[in-house]
Write a structure and sequence with these properties.
Layout: H1 11-22, E1 26-31, E2 36-39, H2 41-46, H3 66-82, E3 86-94, E4 100-111, E5 117-126, H4 128-143, E6 149-151, E7 157-160, H5 162-168, H6 187-203
Antiparallel strand pairs: 1-2, 1-5, 3-4, 4-5, 6-7
Amino acid sequence: RLSFNPNPTTKLELKLSTLMDNIPDKIYFKNLKSEFVLANKSCTRNFGLDKMEDCLGKTDFDFFELEHAQASWNDEQTIIKTGVPIIGKEELESWPDGRESWVSSTKMAWKNDKGEVIGTFGASRDITKIKMIEEQIQALMQTVPDRIYFKDKERRFVTINTAFEKIFKTSDLGQITGKREEDFFAPGYYEVSRLDDEKVIFTGKPIIGK
């Protein structure tokens, strides 16, 4: 297994150090107490620190609000006990100054050469802008008067907006998702709609203003 040396001497260590220092994702290693034992520059800067040594021995409780720090600690302790990783979990980070940010986190058990768990390691990718766009799209879906819907390749409804909910006279998506137009509409309509959907799916070409 590779170990990261903050003062690289070999070519392999230099390559690993270059990767750790330049990748935008926040990469970190923690011991069994969930204390930081290693963090790359992106992670260090994210905490507002000048150098990695400033975060060593600290935990998320030293940087985040209690709710997020506790949830993160719980996840890491579960990984230590079970060895089961967490892949791509979306987390809302809350900071003492009132800021909020979103990350997609992957965490795994950190093991020594004997296969013994000695902590956790992980990577967190900032997805704040993506979440903001999702929120804006959701707001648009709820306010625009046009009827908007999404279907999968099998023509099953995935989601609809508020204007479309009025057609079905329900706001319970569970009654709509997974179903097709033929579950709701008369044959004269859904047969034409089915042909249009299949044409778009097969050709990739849109139908505009029909």
